[in-house]
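Repro:
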Amino acid sequence: MKKSVLALALLASGTLAISSISAQDSSQLPGIVDVSRVQSGTYALDPKHTLVSWRINHFGFNDYIGLFGDISGTMELDPANVEDASFNVTIPIADVTVASEDLREHLLRPGKDGADPDFFGPDPQAATFVSTNVRQTGDTSAIVSGMLTMNGESNPVTMAVDFTGAGTNPMSKAETVGFEARAQIDRTQWGLTTFSPLVGNNVELEISAAFERQ
């Protein structure tokens, strides 16, 4: 019994020590979740550190994951009036990253014998998202609605957005604000119907974004 009590005490003290170290490490990071650090103004996306990942079910066997990078865009933000914020984001479809080169070629290849391509084709236009409404749901969270234009079609999309940090980037010296967002879209609304519904219609999107104040 004494050994058990001693083991629990050691475990508890170790947990407290780890928590203390983690708290110290977090406080030393350039960016922290502190709304008071967010400055009003115009922000531009940091394309080197902003990603959109997508996940889709493949024939019911497993999910496949891909990425878009080199994303550009702007944000207007006043922390005193979060619901007045606006976003305008451009995603280069042709820069899609997947683990299989064969799949990447399929996503971007032209249709056979003059037919429409299975997916985006060799010269896809960039996708754009323009916000139409921001609704604050908590001190560090919001619902952002807007129009996503992709593959020649425009449809509404709603994202759950969390504020993840603010501060001065030690490399660029720019005042930076970070967000993570989640959304789900039905790909068939944008004309991407190939292999539907054997390859899932619902595509899960996860966005990790860093905006630098201009």
